[in-house]
Amino acid sequence: MVVVVAAAMASGAAARPLVGGGGRDDRAPLQTSRPFNIAHRGSNGELPEETAAAYARAIDEGADFIEADVEATKDGHLVCFHDTTLDDVTDVADHPEFAGRRRTLEVQWANVTGYFIIDFTLAELKTLRAKQRWDFRDKSHDGVSPIITFEEFIDIALNAKRVVGIYPEMKNPVFMNKHVKWADGKKYEDRFIATLKKYGYGGKYLTPAWRAKPVFIQSFAPTSLIRAAELTDSPLVFLVDDVTARTEDTNQSYDEVTSGEHLDHMGRHNVVGIGPWKDTVVPPTRGNLLATPTDLVAMAHARGMQVTFRNENEFLHFNFRQDPYAEYDYWINDVGVDGLFTDFPASLRRFQDWTARNRD
Ligand SMILES: *[C@@H]1O[C@H](CO)[C@@H](O)[C@H](O)[C@H]1NC(C)=O
Ligand SMILES: *[C@@H]1O[C@H](CO)[C@@H](O)[C@H](O)[C@H]1NC(C)=O
């Protein structure tokens, strides 16, 4: 408990962000010699997702990038949060003052009921505390950490002792633009990119400007990525859902939008990578064994795109004999992905350090 509070204070106390200072950056650079270790919602296997504590822990554990989902509040602030509703990972249900906020809205072709983040102001959200999503994970930090803003998230990365990249997602952009209005007529995507620019993010992939403040902007929505490409030269990553799922903005299946033609189109708009879910690349059999890999990785690599494997399903296929290192080995060395989203960045870091040592 003490460690978490201290970590949260250390990162929350980022009084002087390294923004536009023009000073020399003596910090250790981002490594680019091996697949990126991307801390999925922070070290969320250990601490409640998308909190300052989870991000600080991920940085301590050696993550190259910290990943976040960015959504908008009722009053137009951008915050780090994954779901459209607050129910599963906050204590909102314990706040009688908000009991009347529960309602049903359509989100991505389905009706969802809960406490929607777009019905709360930032000040109201700050009174809530985060909790672990899964019962089988450590819940001893529930009720401790608040939701953080996108700017607080950026501050954590910029104040790390080495260069740590950010991997923010434009989350549910259709829903955000439908329910949140900004006074100046701007859209969610405009706000998102403007925030990154405010903190000096920009520059094409692997340029010196990018290496100084590494960022990948990710989205499941093709039109949001095209809009982002009009506003920034930062590299973009197209997230790929289950092949039969439909995009929220173009209502095409992910099978359709990952055709060679579509990937070429995206590539012309600064999309340097794709982020498929693991079962999209190697579909499992009904017996939880791996079937034949699809050609998605080869298609992306043929276009010079990175492939980031999204390990969102924490259950291992039986081929890996309950050994997560066997799974890392398969994805890095057999499939050949360029980065891994992981709920446990410490585990991936140790795998990478140990296998690098063994090669010497
Ligand atoms: C959501 O509920 C409304 C009201 O009952 C209904 O009209 C609409 O078709 C539903 N949408 C979906 C996607 O099920
Ligand atoms: C989305 O596409 C599906 C399949 O083509 C179609 O049945 C559905 O009506 C479409 N929905 C909208 C809102 O266009």
UniProtKB/TrEMBL annotation:
<feature type="signal peptide">
    <location>
        <begin position="1"/>
        <end position="15"/>
    </location>
</feature>
<keyword id="KW-0378">Hydrolase</keyword>
<dbReference type="GO" id="GO:0008889">
    <property type="term" value="F:glycerophosphodiester phosphodiesterase activity"/>
</dbReference>
<keyword id="KW-0319">Glycerol metabolism</keyword>
<dbReference type="GO" id="GO:0006071">
    <property type="term" value="P:glycerol metabolic process"/>
</dbReference>
<dbReference type="GO" id="GO:0006629">
    <property type="term" value="P:lipid metabolic process"/>
</dbReference>
<dbReference type="Pfam" id="PF03009">
    <property type="entry name" value="GDPD"/>
</dbReference>
<keyword id="KW-0325">Glycoprotein</keyword>
<keyword id="KW-0732">Signal</keyword>
<dbReference type="InterPro" id="IPR030395">
    <property type="entry name" value="GP_PDE_dom"/>
</dbReference>
<protein>
    <recommendedName>
        <fullName>glycerophosphodiester phosphodiesterase</fullName>
        <ecNumber>3.1.4.46</ecNumber>
    </recommendedName>
</protein>
<dbReference type="InterPro" id="IPR017946">
    <property type="entry name" value="PLC-like_Pdiesterase_TIM-brl"/>
</dbReference>
<comment type="similarity">
    <text>Belongs to the glycerophosphoryl diester phosphodiesterase family.</text>
</comment>
<feature type="domain" description="GP-PDE">
    <location>
        <begin position="35"/>
        <end position="352"/>
    </location>
</feature>
